[in-house]
Amino acid sequence: MPKLTINGQAVDVPAGTNLIEAARKIGVEVPHYCYHPALSIAGQCRLCMVDVEKTPRPTIACNTLAADGMAVWTETDRVKETRKSIMEFHLINHPLDCPVCDQAGECGLQIYYMKHGLYDPRMRDEKVHKPKAVPLGAHVILDAERCILCSRCVRFCDEVTGTGELGIFSRGDESEIGLFPGKELANKYSGNVVDICPVGALTDRDFRFAVRVWYLDSATSICPGCARGCNIEVHVNRRRPHHNDGRRVARLKPRFNADVNRWWICDDGRYGFAFVDDTSRLVIPRWSRDGALGDATWEEAIAAVAGALQRFAPDEIGVVASPKMANEDLWALRRILESRGIRRVAFRVPPRTPGDEDTLLIRRDKNPNSLGAELLGLEGDGAAILAAARARQVKCLWVFGHDLLASAWPVTETDAALRALELLIFTGPSANATSERAHFTLPAAAWVEREGTYTNFEGRVQRFRQAVQPLGQALPEWDILGRVLRALGVEAGATRAERWFRELASGVPAFTGLTYQSIGDGGAALSAPPGGGAAGSHLVSGHPPMGPGSRSPLP
Ligand code: SF4
Ligand code: SF4
Hints:
Elements: E1 3-6, E2 9-12, H1 19-25, E3 49-52, E4 59-60, E5 71-73, H2 77-91, H3 108-117, E6 134-135, E7 140-142, H4 152-160, E8 166-169, E9 176-179, H5 192-196, E10 202-204, E11 216-222, E12 231-237, E13 249-254, H6 267-270, E14 286-289, E15 292-295, H7 298-311, E16 317-320, H8 327-340, E17 344-346, H9 370-375, H10 382-390, E18 396-400, H11 411-420, E19 423-428, H12 433-436, E20 440-443, E21 452-455, E22 460-464, H13 477-487, H14 497-507, H15 516-519, E23 524-525
Parallel strand pairs: 1-5, 16-17, 16-18, 18-19, 19-20
Antiparallel strand pairs: 1-2, 3-4, 3-5, 6-7, 7-10, 8-9, 11-12, 12-13, 14-15, 14-20, 21-22, 22-23
Helix pairs in contact: 2-3, 7-13, 8-13, 8-14, 10-11
Residues 223, 225-226, 228-230, 261, 265-266, 268-269, 361-363 line the site of one iron/sulfur cluster (SF4).
């Protein structure tokens, strides 16, 4: 481990660490644009200059490895002057359009100009003009005038996705980023180039002009789009707290986690939150009485569902839980099943179209908590439950979230099963063809409207937090199920997600010892991870995330 000093402070780092990362280790920020820890070194922006003892000129920190005995200075007069000159170079042709730029407020140029530039502009000539507002693909738009040619986006497409759509074309001050002929920025991770672009050259078509970043609130969360469970931040428009005002969730951003998704998320996950404020959301409990469907109060709906669970024999009740439910919900459901002796339970419903998968992040299983549901003992044969419904052995079916009619199961058979039921109960955040057939619909909060945990495919338990209020009267599933339990006369004291988790951790061996505190924001491994492995949990540390509240503008 080389041991060196940075600004007089001793630090030892693993061999092969560059000076930007060595400085970061002791909280010293070396400003940079082109360097990114996940990409190859380009040495392009020249901003990360530092003074190294016995070196005649300032040196770029990104391409200098820490060596034993090295003495590095990041704030000498010479370094500061060099940085200032480099900032001036970067801004020579940069348009002064911050007031209309989506990046304003989280722009590396703005931030570093205020921190390290602050020179009086000397540029008197007309700036070089380049293409503006050029769509590169479905999600990303380019303003070539704002580009500082750091090449992060080019290296991302070359090195991370391997798709190579982007390049730098022409020479000198005519150089510009663009697509290779016939190409479109259509890889499954294209939105990440917006995150890593340090300026407003690449912006997000979905987020563009939607809200100023200083009106965003942020909550740490987990993407529910597949079994990977990428760590994300949910950015919420503070000025639109109500559904009727428009979209509340403004965007999802990746949150660094070395053990899960590093700096990235896929486009399906990034843009997969539209359902949260969609008109298809279920917002009020409904029940059918005397052949007509009408609104109910929660008290009426809970009493009726508990009554039904008591009226039917346990063997006449089937439950199709969902791998989109959180661990806390599934535990509350398990307590209902145990209290009534209900054994016909399943949670897997085969999708009509098999999910895609790759070696970077995307998992074939498009559910965030299949492993959690499995570990909680909810594995069962869903097709057999429907067959039992057709045979009128199952008379009451409780479906969570799924649209059984849109699954890979034959529609005619599913339809016959639903028709044969005496009672169909549906709980979920959104309406679908199955909920349309339900006698009771109990509206569930979307994942951004509540807190809970998911267990990803590798056995990592991860917390997601509430970012917005539930729509209408929707409640978290653990709350709905807890109320049903109490209506069944079972003691269920937990009225917070954390309390349900505590109960679960003491009831399911794989979760032993886990608490919300030990899971933290980085997640924790199960005590008995699938396929073996080290026991116990560990927290992840990493670079501070980008976005509101982040202290460092660039990873
Ligand atoms: S578009 Fe952004 S990420 Fe790409 S080279 Fe320009 S400044 Fe860098
Ligand atoms: S890979 Fe999966 S968990 Fe990660 S962002 Fe995409 S859908 Fe979400």
